[in-house]
C-alpha cells in the first residue's frame, strides 16, 4: 500500500543563505553609554518619592498594574527597608503613600521622573 499525496502543491526546496561569508556588525558593550532602561520598581520608587505621594489608583494607572499588584510591590519595598508615610488628603477613602526614607544600604531614593514620562511609557506599552 503506497501513500499518495493529498495535496497537489509541492514544497519548495530549502535555499541556502545568499552570502554566507557576510558577517553581521559586532555589537560590543559600551560601558560609557549604558542602556537607559528604568524598571517598574524604579518608576514606583520615583512616583512615591514625590512630595505629594501617590494613591493606589494613580500608581496602578501609571505602571499599568492592577491594584493588588501595586499593594504587593509596596509590601516588597517595605521588606527591602523603605519607610512610607501613609496619609489621607481630602477624602478618607483615598490613602496616599510617600517614601519617607529608603534602606540604609540602598542608593539614594530615585529622582522623580520628568512630568509625563510615566504616562508616555504607559501609552507606548499599550
Salient structural properties:
alpha+beta; Arc Repressor Mutant, subunit A; 4 helices
Helices and strands in order:
Elements: H1 40-48, E1 54-55, H2 56-63, H3 67-80, E2 83-88, E3 95-101, H4 117-125
Antiparallel strand pairs: 1-3, 2-3
Helix pairs in contact: 2-3
Question: What does it look like?
Answer:
With 126 residues, the chain is α+β, with helices and mostly antiparallel strands. It has a domain at 40-125: Arc Repressor Mutant, subunit A, CATH 1.10.10. The protein is built from 4 helices and 3 strands; from the N terminus they run H-E-H-H-E-E-H. It has helices at 40-48, 56-63, 67-80, 117-125, and strands at residues 54-55, 83-88, 95-101. It has a 3-stranded antiparallel beta sheet with strand order 1-3-2. Helix 2 (56-63) crosses helix 3 (67-80). The protein starts with 39 loop residues before the first helix and ends with a helix. 13% of the residues are buried. The model has no long low-confidence stretch (mean pLDDT 75).
Structure, briefly:
The chain has 126 residues and is an alpha+beta fold.
Tell me the β content. Answer: 5-15%
Radius of gyration: 26 Å
The largest β sheet comes out as: 3 strands, antiparallel
Structural class: alpha+beta
Question: Can you identify the CATH class of the domain at 40-125?
Answer: Mainly Alpha
Shape estimate: elongated
What's the CATH architecture name of the domain at 40-125?
Answer: Orthogonal Bundle
The CATH homologous superfamily of the domain at 40-125: Winged helix-like DNA-binding domain superfamily/Winged helix DNA-binding domain
CATH topology of the domain at 40-125: Arc Repressor Mutant, subunit A
Sequence of strands across the biggest β-sheet: 1-3-2
Order of helices and strands: HEHHEEH
From the N-terminal CA to the C-terminal CA, the straight-line distance is 56 Å
Kindly state the percentage of residues in helix.
25-40%
Contiguous helical run count: 4
Low-pLDDT regions: none
Average pLDDT works out at: 75
How many strands? 3
